[in-house]
Design brief:
This protein is mainly beta and about 575 residues long. It has a domain of about 140 residues. It has six helices and 25 strands. The strands form five sheets. Strands 1, 2, 3, 4, 6, 7, 10, 11, 12, 17, 18, 22 and 23 form a 13-stranded antiparallel β-sheet that branches.
């Protein structure tokens, strides 16, 4: 954007603070009808709209200081309707029926004319994309790598869901409750059904991301014509440190069904004692992707023999050790760094950007992944108990019969069936391989992107997963207390309230680097060998010593050391 500072002492400055326009509208309509003394109906419709427009709208990345004149709407709508019918059969039997629908949406909409100024055609940016079909707005790449720039860098940046809208629905929900009074009993039975749809707007790296960061590797990466040492100068020349894109735009399109029924009774056994007891039965599906996109990592399907190979690092000069088992006294010089295919370790490759990327044609890039289209895959990738039993009991006992001292007790079981639909659950599985992969090219020039884009590299990525054999979160609530009327219109109550929860959701990385793995290759006497403990250790000839002219570089990257090779972090949500 052009300078806009109104202060004469700061000419030529851009002010990125701007008031946000936040109009809100809410409308409610209700109609009540009572056609007879035994029937009553109502219908209610409600509409809510909140439109935040400005440089500081919800969800924008990198904070207010990095919006740089890109104005946007955060448009939220929540609309719904409901109906209710109460029918009185007689003085002791009443039925109530309810039905409702709801639609809420979350839109990330460019302000008028803003996106048009950022299109490739408007700016004259003609470099190709790896996956142009994903760039539906035809925008220029994001540029947010500006190391060496002091202060707030001029990021070209926007939300990855910009221009898209996500929609959630309850379509429909209904409940029916029948109340029966018979003597000293008050019975109540009912059922509830809900069909919930959760659709988040698609995101991903769809317009491409450029980094003009500076580094020693970048300086030599273009034959001495790479980094100038200053990120803005690199951008003016078109010399980038990296350019990346993702192969698809993952989005959430989840659905879950819930059906619950209950029966309960309030039994007034005497004037002093009342017992409440009942049971609720609940059926639910796990969250599942409606369009069958997404994949899940199942450790039982992973075969180590099918793990793809990674290009490994090496050094053409030996590294000097201070003492056995100590780290190298100096890193491998940049000019001596090489990459090699583990199948041909004597063939050294000068393109060190290959290190840590997949060797083409090796292994199975989907090793351990199961697609939702696989007939053996459970719905939503989870096997859960289809029926939850929730017994509940409570009592009230007038201990002395004078209505002044009452003992109350309650206990019950409760379940939380709506799990796995959040960011750590089913909604994150759409970004997994093989449906979604990240590709990058490094140390190039924008004018030459067409010639090097075909060599975009693919490396292990972070994977989301849900536990296949999982449980439903369960809570046990219980209370015991005594109420005492002490007079003076005052009641004193002492109670113990307890709650225990089991099978709560937890997200953990099952593909962490094992303890001490980073140090195995640094020990020239081999792994698990401490000279101070075992003086008879045999030196490992492959550790930091020349083998066929190859020297290791010291520490391997994380992806070489993980238990499930071929992947980065595997963040699994469990309910065990």
């Amino acid at each position: 954007p052009l300078p806009n500072s109104p202060i004469t002492c700061n000419p030529g400055r851009y002010v990125f603070q701007k008031s946000v326009d936040v109009p809100k509208h809410s409308y409610v309509f209700r109609f009540d009808v009572k056609p007879s003394s035994k029937d009553s109906f109502y219908w209610k419709g409600q509409w809510w709209t909140s439109d935040n427009e400005g440089l500081g709208t919800s969800g924008w990345p990198s904070g207010d200081a990095n919006r740089w004149g890109i104005s946007s709407h955060y448009l939220y709508k929540d609309n719904g309707m409901s109906g209710n019918w109460v029918h009185i059969f007689n003085s002791s039997i009443v039925n109530e029926f309810y039905v409702g629908m709801r639609h809420d949406s979350e839109g990330f909409i460019p302000s008028a004319g803003v996106a048009e100024k950022l299109t490739r055609a408007a700016i004259g940016y003609t470099a190709p994309q790896i996956f142009p079909q994903n760039n539906t707005m035809n925008l220029v790449p994001i540029a947010n790598g500006w190391t060496s720039v002091t202060g707030t860098a001029a990021n070209i940046n926007w939300l990855n869901r910009w221009g898209e809208t996500g929609n959630d629905y309850i379509r429909p929900s209904f409940s029916d409750n029948l109340s029966i009074t018979h003597g000293v009993h008050s019975f109540k039975v009912g059922t509830y059904f809900e069909r919930l749809l959760n659709s988040e707007a698609p995101g991903g790296n769809w317009s491409g991301t450029l980094s003009f960061s500076t580094s020693s590797s970048f300086t030599t990466g273009l034959g001495g014509l790479g980094s100038t040492g200053f990120a803005y100068a690199n951008a003016l020349l078109g010399n980038f440190a990296s350019y990346s894109e993702q192969s698809s735009r993952p989005f959430t399109n989840n659905e879950i069904h819930l059906l619950q029924s209950y029966a309960q009774d309030e039994w007034r056994m005497s004037r002093r004692f009342t017992l409440n007891y009942g049971v609720r039965l609940g059926y639910h599906t796990p969250f599942f992707q409606r369009d069958q996109q997404g994949s899940n990592f199942d450790p039982s399907r992973y075969n180590p023999a099918k793990a793809p190979l990674l290009y490994q690092p090496t050094c053409t000069t030996a590294l000097t050790f201070v003492a056995p088992g100590s780290p190298a006294s100096a890193a491998c010089p940049t000019a001596n760094r090489r990459a090699f295919d583990p199948r041909t370790p004597t063939v050294l490759l000068t393109n060190t950007n290959l290190v840590g990327t997949f060797v083409p044609g090796t292994g199975d890039l989907g090793n351990g992944m199961i697609l939702s289209t696989d007939p053996t895959a459970p719905r939503g990738f989870r096997n859960t108990r289809s029926l939850d039993l929730e017994p509940r009991v409570g009592l009230a006992w007038d201990l002395r019969g004078d209505g002044r001292t009452v003992l109350r007790m309650m206990g019950g079981v409760y379940h939380a069936p709506r799990v796995g639909g959040g960011t750590g659950g089913a909604s994150s599985l759409g970004g997994n391989p093989p449906l979604q992969r990240s590709f990058s090219v490094t140390f190039g020039n924008i004018d030459n992107l067409l010639n090097i884009i075909g060599g975009a590299l693919n490396s292990p990525s972070t994977v989301a997963a849900v536990e296949v054999s999982s449980k439903t979160p369960t809570t046990y609530n219980y209370t015991v207390g005594i109420q005492r009327d002490i007079g003076y219109k005052t009641v004193v109550e002492v109670a113990y309230v307890g709650s225990q929860s089991r099978h709560l959701g937890e997200r953990r990385n099952i593909n962490q680097v094992p303890d001490n793995a980073h140090f195995i290759d640094l020990n020239p006497f081999g792994p698990n060998c401490l000279i101070s403990v075992n003086a008879g250790c045999t030196r490992n000839p492959f550790a930091n010593s020349a083998v066929n002219g190859i020297h290791t570089t010291g520490v391997l990257g994380d992806n070489f050391l993980r238990p499930y090779k071929g992947y980065g972090d595997i963040n699994m949500t469990t309910w065990s």
